[in-house]
Specification:
This protein is mostly helical. It has one domain. The chain is built from five helices and no strands. The chain starts with a helix and ends in a 5-residue tail after the last helix. Homodimer.
């Protein structure tokens, strides 16, 4: 049995994406719980918000950020294997399914950036987002992931 570098890198990429997605699906839920503390009585409000904000920061710094970095590194590595290892050239990136997947990755990265910015606002006490907002938008990364996964697994083309 020989080791196939592409499949090892692909497996590591999938694991990184799973961790990244898990974090991006959980963080808005923590934001919703934080927003729900408005209007609650002290000292419970302060204690809960303090605890939630520690969890939010740790989730972003320990899981979400490293997982996104790993997903990007392994993703770029797979592209380089296709371009140079398999000799497909850079035109590989223009295939409809790959272009769609790359757009989905950019969208997920944008959502990640939005969540990071919102965490800073929450921690500073300047966020205007409500619990309802976070519950309504919680599934955005999952919907984007559906597009990415189906693009890669079907490798669809026009015609």
């Amino acid at each position: 049995m020989s080791f196939d570098a592409f499949n090892i890198v692909r497996g590591l990429h999938i694991l990184a994406v799973i961790a990244w997605m898990a974090g991006m699906l959980f963080l808005p839920r923590l934001f919703a719980y934080d927003a729900e503390q408005q209007g609650k009585a002290e000292p419970l409000k302060s204690e809960m918000q303090s605890l939630l904000r520690v969890w939010q920061g740790r989730l972003l710094k320990i899981i979400i950020n490293p997982a996104m970095t790993a997903a990007w590194v392994f993703g770029v590595w797979m592209i380089l294997i296709h371009v140079y290892g398999y000799g497909e050239g850079w035109a590989f990136l223009a295939r409809p399914w790959m272009a769609t997947k790359l757009l989905a990755v950019v969208a997920l990265s944008g959502w990640h950036g939005f969540l990071s910015g919102e965490l800073r606002k929450i921690q500073a006490g300047t966020s205007i987002r409500t619990s309802r907002f976070w519950r309504m938008t919680n599934e955005i990364p999952f919907l984007i992931a559906i597009v990415a996964v189906l693009s890669v697994t079907t490798e669809w083309t026009f015609g």
